[in-house]
Structure formats: structure tokens, C-alpha cells
Design brief:
The structure is a homodimer. Chain A is mainly α and about 325 residues long. Chain A has 15 helices and two strands. The first copy, chain A, has helices at about 10-25, 30-40, 45-55, 65-85, 100-105, 105-120, 130-150, 160-185, 190-215, 230, 235-245, 250-255, 265-275, 280-295, 305-320; strands at about 90-95, 95. In chain A, helix 8 packs across helix 9 (about 190-215) and helix 9 runs antiparallel to helix 14. The radius of gyration of chain A is 19 Å and the shape is globular. The relative contact order of chain A is 0.13. At the A-B interface, helix 4, helix 6 and helix 7 of A face helix 4, helix 6 and helix 7 of B.
Chain lengths: ~325, ~325
């Protein structure tokens, strides 16, 4: 793809992986099995990368404290995915059974709590400001998940509602990673704020693309089922745009309102959405957001890390999984 | 009951309640409704009390930071109860529907995460040592819950296994409250360790009594269903003792192994357990633990707070709800 955003920090990311593996250890056989299952899932490591790249782009030398914090972000992210999958009734993630499918809902609830606590523990020695920010971000994230649930199967969500939900759910956590990295490099407030603005936009674009992939079915390449968001009545941007289509919209809206749509209806809705310009509009929006975000980085001196931040942003828009 | 342990700190506890109410606020109608539901449930506030009493008994003057930390302990505790109730399939708590029964499992998962994060946020300005300890305690707690799940319906659990599970699940979190309170009063390490030892034992006794109440049905007075632990196959101390009864044990063991025991079998098991000396042995054990814990407090100068700590410990053994 040409987006080699991780090359400049590949040593750091290897260390982060080792820290994660080390933090997720247990003498209990089944617990260790689940930890291994989680760590071997091949996540994209976008959050630690955002933290480390922001840090290095601000001149930081990425000491142990930064690596531990970056690892903590990934573990907390994994924890939220485990709970999200329960809540979205997702059976497959990254081509494999989700934790609750493989090990029961109960164990998945506990695993999420456990990994959330491990993440905070790993972050323990960090500055109070960081812990406070991460806790606030976690609060906002959970609130946004809650609000999203309230909107399920209700085709009344506006683009503004959607943007506000994904801001809290996805963009703020990614912002927190970048902000922390820059803060730990001792960057000035101005620089920290610009990098935060960049990361927030990248986070917004990331979620829009995620929601596109649910429609285009490209996700199948990574083993997810297409159309899950429609099945769950999750009001994503492609769905919002598609429902506004004067010709095809009404039927899409009808299916979206169904609490448990049949496989046929789901297929029909996906097909109809793909025939509107919804996906194209979303792609274009995500692209605009990212391109408009890049100037935020003009505060930074040129470096391979700055280049990587830009590549990472563009990779996020162009990815197909 | 004569156990007026809360009188010496009733002003502090009123302030803690106000902090909790203030931390659990939202513009979203349903979110606020759930917060109100949680805060009006009439919890016993044992964790904040333990924190404040330990603090004041060590000569602390209970400033805002201590009150906020005490409130954080209660919120984190409430968060774990919400998730525990999902995992134990409990329908009733404190005489009312549990969160997942009233608002769906999904919302209960999110609410637990949200309140956990709010607790950590409230603790944000605290010393790193405290945050680290609370995070470690949360880890241990979740691990213990996990181990307990592995033992479900398996009548092979020993008293030692049980004590190790409740140590992580209940006693360590109560220890963390006391330790934090003493630490924030600037107490010497020796004193902090003695108070921690006391609180750990009180926590162990607390859980043993909780498990007795599930058998004796006294819990009905607070609206819980008796026998839930047997239904869930949770290996509690009264069950372990009862199964070891040479005459009645084998039948109790049989029912305990059933994945979904009928109402009749449940009633039969409860009746049989009550006819063994299991409850009496547990009561006596809890009592011994608490009485042996009290000498830990001899390090402390006499004060009404020290007296309250002792009353709190004895209240915990003698409570019927």
C-alpha cells in the first residue's frame, strides 16, 4: 500500500508488544490462554503508534515510561473491544471467534474489567495529568457507547449526532494517545494542542472508514461479517446518508427499524445502501477530514516521525480492513 | 443493633454521598436515571467508612482529597457490583431489580465501565502510590472472579481455595480502602501495615457472612433471593463445609454439581445445608477472624474512630443483611 507508517518506530512497537505480553501473564491456565488469544490477534497497534509517533515527532526519545504508557493504551483498547463485542453481539473479530463467543459472556465481562485495570496499573507511574485524562477519556467513551445504544434502530440520528458519538467513542481515545505522547516529550502547550487536533480528526476519519467497511464488506477479508451495524441498528454515517436518499432511502429506513432483520432483509439493505452515493460521500468526508488535519502538524519540525504521522493518517483512510 | 460505627463520621459520609451524586451526573435523561437508581439504592457505604475511619484513627483531618478518594472507592465498588450481577445472573439487589434486569445487559456492561472510569477519574489527583494500589487491587479482584468462575459447580474446592478467592475478591479491596486512608493521614509504615492487616481480616469475615446469608435466607429481608450461590454453583464456605458432612454431604454435592438445578432441588439443598453445622462453623470462623483482627489496632491511640473501626468489624459479623 505504500503506507509504511510503522517503519520509523518498528523497534519501539516490538518493545510495546513485549510489554503487553509481560503485563498479560497469569499462573492460571485458562487466563493465560485468553491473554495469548488476545495478544496474538494481530491488532493494528494504531493507538500505541499514535502515542509513540507524537512523542518522537516532538523530539522525545521514547523511554520506558512512554513505551509502558503506549502499551497501556493498547491494553485498555483491547479491554473495550471485548466489552463492545459483547454489546454488539459480534461473533467474529479479526477472523476469529470473539472472547464471549469462545469463553462465555461472563468471562468476557471479567476479562474486559481485568485488562482495563491492568492498563491503568501499567500507567500507574505516569503523571497525574495523564491518568486524569485517560480516565476522563474512558468516561467519555463509555458515555458515547451508551448514547449510541439509545439511538439503535432509530433512523432519526443526524450527521451531527453521529459525529458527536464517534468523537467520544473513537476520536477522543486516539487524541489521548497523541496528547500523552507529546506531553511526555515535554512539548509546549501549543504543540500539544495542535497534535491533539490532528489526532482527533484522524480518529473521526478512522471510525467513518470502519463504518464504511461494514457496508462494503471489505471487512470480510479480515473475517468480520458485513452488515453487522445494520443488524444491530447502529446509526452509522453511511446508513444516515443512505436513508436520506430520496428513492432508495425509505426502504433502507424500514429495514433499519427492524429489531431483528432477516438475512434477506440485511442483504437487501446492504445492496440498496451500496447503490446510493452514501459510501462515496463517506469516503470523501473521511478523506477531507484527514487532509485538513495534516496542516495541524506544520508546528512540528520535519522528521521521519512527522512523515509517519501523515502516512498513518492516510493509511487509515485507505485501509480495507 | 448497638453497632453505631457510622456515628463518629456521619458528617463525612454525608459529604461522600454528595460527592458521589455530583460525580454521577449527566445531561442524558436515561443515564441520569440509572445514576439516580444506583445512588439511591442504600448501599452500606462500608468501603468509604473504612477509608475515612482508618484515616481519622491515624490522626488525619479528612480533607477534600480523602473524601473524594472515599467516594471513588464506593463508585468503583458499585461498578463491580453491576458487572457481578450480570455474571451471577442476579435479578434482585437491595430489594430492587438489578441494572441489567431493568436496563439490559448491554447498558449494564457500559454502566460498569463508565462508573469504573469515573471512580478512577475522581481518584486522579491522588498520589501515584494510591492509584497504583487501586489498579492492582482491581486486577486481583477480577482475577479472583475469574478463578471463582472456573470452580463453578465443581465440588472440589477446598477451604484454602475459597479463602484465596475471597481474599482477592473482597478482602483486598477493603484493605485498599483502609490502607489509602491511613496513608493519606501520613501514618508510619508500621501503622499502615497493621491497619491493612485488620481491614483484610474484616474483608474476609465480610464475605463469609455474605455467603452465610445466601444460605440462611436472611438476605430475603433485603430483597435478595436465597440460594443464588448454589444455583450458580458458586463454591462458598458454607457449601464446602456442608458437602464435607458425612451423612448429608453427598446429596448436597449432587445438587451442587447440577448446571441448572430445579427450584425443588435448590430448596432441598438449602434445607440440607441448614441441617449441617456448616452455617454455625462459618459464623464461628468469621467471628474468630474479626476478634483476632482487633489486636492489630493496638498500635493506634484510643479514639472514637478506633472504637468505630471495632464496631464496624463486629457489625459486619453480626449483620443480617
Amino acid at each position: 500500500m505504500g503506507h509504511q507508517w510503522h517503519l520509523s518506530i518498528s523497534d519501539d512497537l516490538v518493545k510495546v508488544d513485549a510489554i503487553i505480553k509481560d503485563a498479560l501473564r497469569s499462573d492460571r491456565k485458562e487466563l493465560q490462554e485468553i491473554y495469548d488469544y488476545v495478544t496474538s490477534s494481530g491488532g493494528k497497534r494504531i493507538r500505541p503508534a499514535m502515542c509513540i509517533l507524537a512523542h518522537r515527532a516532538c523530539g522525545g526519545s521514547c523511554g520506558d515510561d512512554v513505551l509502558h504508557t503506549a502499551a497501556a493504551f493498547e491494553i485498555i483498547h483491547d479491554a473495550t473491544l471485548i466489552h463492545d463485542d459483547i454489546n454488539d453481539k459480534s461473533e467474529i473479530r479479526r477472523g476469529r471467534k470473539t472472547i464471549h463467543e469462545k469463553y462465555t459472556v461472563t468471562k468476557a465481562v471479567i476479562m474486559g474489567d481485568l485488562m482495563f485495570a491492568i492498563g491503568f496499573k501499567l500507567m500507574g507511574p505516569a503523571d497525574r495529568k495523564i491518568i486524569d485524562m485517560v480516565a476522563s477519556t474512558s468516561t467519555t467513551m463509555a458515555e458515547s457507547e451508551f448514547i449510541q445504544k439509545e439511538f439503535e434502530h432509530k433512523p432519526i440520528v443526524t450527521e451531527k449526532d453521529y459525529m458527536s458519538i464517534i468523537r467520544g467513542k473513537t476520536a477522543m481515545p486516539i487524541l489521548a494517545c497523541a496528547r500523552t505522547g507529546a506531553f511526555m516529550a515535554g512539548a509546549d502547550d501549543d504543540v500539544i494542542n495542535e497534535i491533539s487536533g490532528f489526532a482527533l480528526d484522524v480518529g473521526l476519519a478512522f471510525q467513518i472508514v470502519d463504518d464504511i467497511l461494514d457496508i462494503t464488506g471489505d471487512r470480510l477479508s479480515m473475517g468480520k461479517t458485513a452488515g453487522m451495524d445494520i443488524a444491530e441498528g447502529k446509526p452509522t454515517l453511511p446508513v444516515i446518508y443512505a436513508i436520506s436518499d430520496t428513492v432508495l432511502g425509505p426502504r433502507i429506513k424500514e429495514i433499519f427499524k427492524e429489531k431483528e432483520p432477516s438475512h434477506e432483509h440485511l442483504k437487501e439493505a446492504l445492496e440498496l445502501i451500496r447503490r446510493t452515493d452514501a459510501v462515496e460521500r463517506c469516503r470523501s468526508k473521511a478523506n477531507d477530514i484527514v487532509e485538513n488535519a495534516i496542516p495541524h502538524l506544520s508546528f512540528l519540525k520535519d522528521s521521519e516521525y512527522k512523515d509517519s504521522l501523515i502516512s498513518l493518517a492516510r493509511y487509515i483512510v485507505n485501509r480495507d480492513r
